Amino acid sequence: MMQEGLGRAQRPALAPAEGSFHSQSAFRQIRFSSACPAWCWRRRSRKVLAHCQTGNDDKTTSRHFVSPSRRELVLCSAQWLWCGALLTGTDDAKTIVNSVLGAYGLPKLPVSTGFKLYDDFDEEYIFEYPRGWVARSNHQRKGIYFADFNTADKAVLEEFQAPPDGQDAIMEVVSRAVSPANEVGGDARLILPDERRIKSEEAEHDGLKYVYIRFPSETVTRSGYQIRRKNIAVAAAKNGRMYSLLASARSDQYNKAKEELLQHIVESFRVRP
């Protein structure tokens, strides 16, 4: 027993294992990955160890897992928000959190109010859209897609070759707005509205002519489900290119507040002079 005890006392303290950290500076030494924080927490749960001294003079070393400190949680939460922005297409914190809560069937936070300005210097246009909406690239056409996936409200911006002189630009905008490539990828029957139900008016801003269009649209899915929408659009041509912005909502959800929301999006649209 005495020899065994001396053997323990003379045994040198364990060197820190590779991948482990001292408790006071554990988080400082962690290099964040550009990947999502789920990797960060899995790695930490396996490898983050602390070396604690006992009250004995021999300074025997033991290992135990470190529970995350408040600072660790804050920094990792920031990484979650960053990843959420990449995955959901928005930098609005409430929208990102709600997307996670919704996935688990949990109650959501109140939706963010107000508008954000879309102003990309590489693009020829600017406009405002609701802060809580999510952005997606339009992979089938040149443009961008914004939507509230809780209500199916959306705004779609498209850029295309301006119709030749004498050709009806209004019908071109309407037909693109309800085309399968934009709506449901050909998985339904799209019905163009009667021309008598299409209302339009023109206005001029900064020397550029804008046409504002209102029309209903109808989609019949393969299962026979009928979806009706109300649409408000604006279009302007510059240097042979046509830029159109369509804002729409389902007819069964349409009300005065919804109309004002869509109207604000459309009226904020401008093509750079």
Automatic annotation (TrEMBL):
One protein family per Pfam: PsbP
GO biological process: photosynthesis
An example Gene Ontology molecular-function term: calcium ion binding
SUPFAM superfamilies listed in its UniProt record: Mog1p/PsbP-like
CC annotations in GO: extrinsic component of membrane; photosystem II oxygen evolving complex
UniProt-listed PANTHER family: PSBP-LIKE PROTEIN 1, CHLOROPLASTIC, PTHR31407
The protein's name: PsbP C-terminal domain-containing protein
Native organism: Coccomyxa viridis
